[in-house]
What does this fold into?
Amino acid sequence: MSKLNSNIPAGELTQKWTKYKSSVPLVNPANKRSLEVIVVGSGLAGASAAATLAEMGYKVKCFCFQDSPRRAHSIAAQGGINAAKNYQNDGDSTYRLFYDTIKGGDYRAREANVHRLAEVSANIIDQCVAQGVPLAREYGGLLDNRSFGGTQVQRTFYAAGQTGQQLLLGAYSALERQVGMGKVQMYTRHEMLDVVVIDGKARGIIARNLITGELERHFGHAVVLGTGGYGNVFYLSTNAMGSNVTAAWKVHKKGAFFANPCYTQIHPTCIPVSGDHQSKLTLMSESLRNDGRIWVPKKKDDTRKASDIPEDERDYYLERRYPAFGNLVPRDVASRAAKERCDAGYGVGSSKLAVYLDFKANTERYGRIEASKAGNHNPDKETCMRLGTAVIKEKYGNLFDMYAQITGENPYETPMRIYPAVHYTMGGVWVDYDLMTTIPGLYCTGEANFSDHGANRLGASALMQGLADGYFVLPYTIGSYLSKELATKPIPLDHPAFVEAENEVRATIDKFLSINGSKSVDHFHKRLGHIMWEKCGMARNREGLTQAIQEIQDLRREFWADVKVPGSADEFNPELEKAHRVADFIELGELMCKDALNREESCGGHFREEHQTEEGEAKRDDENYAYVSAWEYKGVSEFELHKEELVYENIKVAQRNYK
Amino acid sequence: MSTGNMNLTLQIWRQKNSKSAGKLVDYKLSEISPDMSFLEMFDVLNEQLITKGEEPVVFDHDCREGICGMCSMFINGQPHGPKDLVTTCQLHMRSFKDGDTIVVEPWRAKAFPVIKDLAVDRSAFDRIIASGGFVSVNTGNAQDANNLPIPKAKADAAFEAAACIGCGACVATCKNASAMLFVSAKVSQLALLPQGQPERYRRVQSMVAQMDEEGFGNCTNTGACEAECPKGISLENIARMNRDYLSAKFISEEEV
It folds into this structure.
C-alpha cells in the first residue's frame, strides 16, 4: 500500500554509510559547474549545504527571508552540540550516541539515518574548529564538554551559552567566502512561496523579493529546503518571530509527504509567560540542568518566598521520580513532570504555572572546590557562595543576564522560575536516506525534515543534525540524483509551469489584500496558538483533538473572510508576509491534530492521556504504531496517511527507563 | 498577570521607501505594561494602527532574545535605547516612566540606507565578511579538533570578539559612521587563533579595503561604539586590527 521507499542501503548498520559513500555515482568537476542547486534557508543546515555544494563546484543560489544569512534562528541555540568524540574518556562511542538518540526518540526514528548521524558527528567538531569557531576549552588547551539530558556521558561541545551563534557564524563565514568567490548567489530578504515541479521533478522556486514585492522565478536542477521547524504554529514558542512552515507547507501541497507532524518538543526550562502582550518565549538552556536542581514546595499553594522554604519542605521531584538520571532526564519527561506538579497545585509564582530551578547547592559546591584550590580547606558558607557564584557566572553568565533582563529578578540570589514551552518540531517533510522528499530532486535538511529524532529530540542534537545534513550528508547524496541530470539544460523561466506557479502565488497575494476584513493577522495567529496549546500541546486526548480540528476549520474560514492585510503587494510589507505564514500554519495545525488523533499511543513528545502507565509515563504501542506517519495532501482538510514501518535490527526496543 | 498603566508619547520616523523623504510622526499609547519588551510595545501600536486602517510601522526584528542582531532602533539618541549591554528586543518598558516621550529613529549611516520606516539595509556587513572574514578551509579537510590545543585565555578572547551580533549599533552611534568595531571583532577573533594565521594579513587588508569601499567613515577613537555595543565588544579589537593592518604594510608580499 505504501508509496514510500526509504532507500536504506543494504548491509551491516555500521557499514551502510561507508559503502554508500564509496559507491554513490560521482559528478565530474566540469559537469558540476553546469549543475544549479537552489538552497532555501541559511541556518545551520542551509548555510552549511550551500557552502559545501559551492566548494564542490556546483552553482548555488541561496535564499533567506532575513536581511543576512547570519540571522537564521540557529543563531539562538544555546547549550551545545553533541559528538561521539569520547574526549572525556567516559566510554562514549558512535554506537552509544546512536543508541541514546534512538532511545531518547522513544524508538520512533530510523536506525540507518541515526547511525549515520552519530558517525559524522565527530567530523562536525573537526570542521568547525578548523573554521575558527571558538568552542570552550580547558586550561590544557583541549576542548571542554558538558552533560545534556538523556545521556550518561559528557559529549556536548559548547561556546558559553551561545553555541548556535558560534556554529552558525562558522557556517555563515564559509557561505560568505563562496559568495565572495561568486560561487553562491545570495538572495537575502527573499521568501520562497512555491516550488516549481516539471515532469514530476523539482525544477525551481517562486520567491518574493520582500523589499520590492516582485515575484521572481528561479531554476535549479535540484532544490534543497533547510527552512527550519514549525513551532510557531503555537504562536508562543522559543522560535524567532519569522520562523515559519511556509516553504515546507508549499512543497507538501505540491506532493511532498509531511511526516509525524504531531511530534512537538516542549522544552522544560523556559521563562514563564508574564502577560497577554507576550510575543515569544525565551529558553533557558538545558545545560542549566547540569547545575540547577528542579523543585516545588511540598505544600500545596505555598506562598512563601523560595528562600523561606526549608530544605525538608522542598520536593525535588525529578530526583525523586528518576534517581538514575535525576535533573537530566530527557525533555519530554521533564516537561510532563513539571506540568503534573503544577496541575496538582504545587506550582510557584503569580501564575502558579512555574517550578524552581535552583543553583544554590552547586554554587556552594563549586565555591568549596575553588576555596580548596586556593588552599582554604575549611571555607565558611559566605566564601563558598562568593567563589561559587563566579564559577556559575563564567559558565552561564549570558543566560543569567537574559533571565534578569526579562523577569526583573536576580537569579544569582533567588531561584529561576521556569515552565515548559514549545521549542522544536521533530516532525517535518518526509525524506528518504538520501534526504530526498517524495518529489524527485527536492531535498529537505535540518529541522525542516523529520528524519533523525523520532518522537523526541535529545538536547544538543539539533545543531548536530543540521550541520551533519549540510556539511556531510546532502553534498554526497545529492550527487546520486544530479549525476543523472547532466543532460538537463536549464529550463527557460517562461516555461508554463513557472508561469502557472507564479500566477498562483500572485492570486493568493491579491486575495489577502482584497479581503479587507476587521482583524489583524496576529489576531488569528494568537487564536490558532491557543487552540493548539490547549488541545494539541503537552497532553492530548481524543475529545480535545476532535474539537480542535473543528475549531481550526472554523478559524480558517473566518481568516479567509475577515483578515485585514494593510498596504500593497509591491512594497516592503511585513503584514503580507505574516498573512502567508499564518494561512499555512492554520492548515498545518489541522494536520497536526489529525496526526495526533490517529496515533493511539503515547511516545516521546506525543502524550495521549488515554495511553499512560500507572505511574503516568508515556505508554507506547509498538505492535500497532511502530511506523512513521507520512501524510499526502489531497485538498483542503484532506490528507491521506501512508505508513513507513520502522524496523529495529540493532537495538532492542524497550520501554524507556530513566529511573 | 501584569496590568498595563503606562501612558507614552512616541515620535517615530516614518519613511515610505529609500527614495522618499521621511519625518517624525507622533503617536499616543496607553495601558502599556512595564513587563513588555520595547518591541512588544511596538506590536501593540501596530495592532492599533492596523485596526484603524493606518499603515503599521515597519521595523526589523526576529529572535527577540538578543542574539540574531536584526533589531535596530535608535531610541532617544541611543542605539538599542538607554540600557547597557542589551538589544532593543531585550529592552523592557520598566526602563521608562509613565508619561515619557520616546523618540525612535532608524540607524543613520551612508552605508546603511533606510529601506522603510525603521528598517535599514545592512548588507554592507555581509560584503565585508565575504571579502575575508573566514578561514579558507573546505568541508572535509579538517584534522582532529584536539590536535590543535589552544590556550584557554586565547580561546576565550577569540570568543569574546566572536560574540558580535552584527547589528550595526557601533556604526549608528559613531559620529563618523565607522564600522571599525564590527570589522575588528572578526579580524581579532581569527587573528587570536592559530587557524587564522595563514591568512591573517591578507584578511585584514581586504576587509579594511571593503569597509572603505562601502562608505563607512574613519575611526577617531571616541569609543562610543564600545559604550553602546550590546555585546560589550572591546575597543582593544580596534587596536589589534590597526596593529595587524600596519604590520601587513611591512610584510613582504609573499607573506601576505
The first strand of chain B starts at residue 6 and ends at 14. Residues 221 and 235 of chain B are 9 Å apart (CA to CA). Chain B touches chain A through 81 residues (CB under 8 Å).
